[in-house]
Amino acid sequence: MKAYLDSSVILRKLLGQPEAIKEWGRWEEGYTSAITRLESLRTLDRLRLEGKLKDEEVSEKTRLLGMVLDSTSTISLNEAVLKAASRAFPTIVGSLDAIHLASALLCEQKIKDKLTILTHDVRMGLAAQAMGFETKGFAFPS
Description:
Blueprint: E1 2-5, H1 7-14, E2 29-33, H2 35-49, H3 55-70, E3 73-75, H4 79-86, H5 95-111, E4 116-118, H6 122-130, E5 134-136
Parallel strand pairs: 1-2, 1-4, 2-3, 4-5
């Protein structure tokens, strides 16, 4: 499987949260957006400031994040991605999810192969499915 990892999948694994994606590490090629580093580091810092993570934990999780990101191909945040993210989507998506989806779409065109979107975010997953992507990791709300 060629997988696109969004921030929610990486963070859930890093933070040891329940129901982390079962397919973790089972991809032959992994891709993510340059914004994943930003989203992940902002989340770790927020958790530190809220007293939910100690400095040592942030340091270790930042190191692990670097390892995950080093093992994936990063899709640059460039004009083509921003233009694609600005277009209409078949479902409601926020700006960051639009960047992830646009990155995955452009990545598919570049590698000439299908990507599976790995996400725990419901809106991201619904939009990805509506765009024709295979998805793993999210559940429809009850």
